[in-house]
Design goal:
- Helix content is 14%, strand content 44%.
- The chain has a single domain, classed as Hypothetical Protein Pfu-838710-001 (Beta Barrel).
- The N and C termini lie far apart (34 Å).
- It contains four helices and nine strands.
- It is mainly beta and 166 residues long.
């Protein structure tokens, strides 16, 4: 897959409402290979693996070019060794809301306690229905980029957020 990725990102309010609303969930581990001008991600998701290259964000962090290719688990394990700063470990829950699917990520390790949701759109102005558990929008806030969470994990700055999100 390649093309423009348009997404909005939100914090999820405390509680497990997203878990009971989910129609699917999977375990994800991902790391980042250093690159200038792009984000290069290696991801395993249950028994599949992917190499993703993302360009710089525009429009307040909402839009960017994305290229993604499925790779073998063996290739992913080798590429993960090239990643700097460790690996992001999380569980992703898929929640249908209107005609969209929200991806809700519950983080582990040094990012334990952080729960975020993303919704992909076909147009920057496309309307969508937010589930009740969706809170403050953080689109474009670099603190919430997975690649940033490796160097500045949630455990370090969690107290900067309102209580309902930590």
């Amino acid at each position: 897959m390649s093309g423009l990725e348009i997404e909005r990102k939100f914090l999820v309010k405390k509680g497990d409402a997203y878990k009971s609303a989910a129609f699917s969930n999977s375990h994800i581990q991902q790391g980042y290979i250093p690159a200038d001008g792009a984000t290069v991600r290696v991801r395993t998701r249950d028994d599949k693996a992917y190499l993703t290259i993302k360009g710089k964000s525009v429009n307040g962090g909402m839009t960017r070019y994305e290229f993604e290719k499925e790779i073998t688990m063996d290739e992913a394990q080798h590429l993960l060794q090239l990643c700097k700063g460790g690996v992001i470990d999380k569980r992703r829950y898929l929640v249908k809301s209107g005609k969209h699917t929200f991806e809700v990520d519950e983080f582990y390790g040094d990012n334990q306690g952080l729960v975020m949701a993303e919704v992909e759109l076909s147009d920057e102005n496309e309307a969508y229905v937010k589930p009740d558990f969706i809170g403050m929008e953080v689109t474009g806030d670099k603190r919430f980029y997975n690649s940033h969470l490796l160097n500045f994990p949630f455990v370090v700055w969690r107290n900067t957020l309102p209580e309902e999100y930590r």
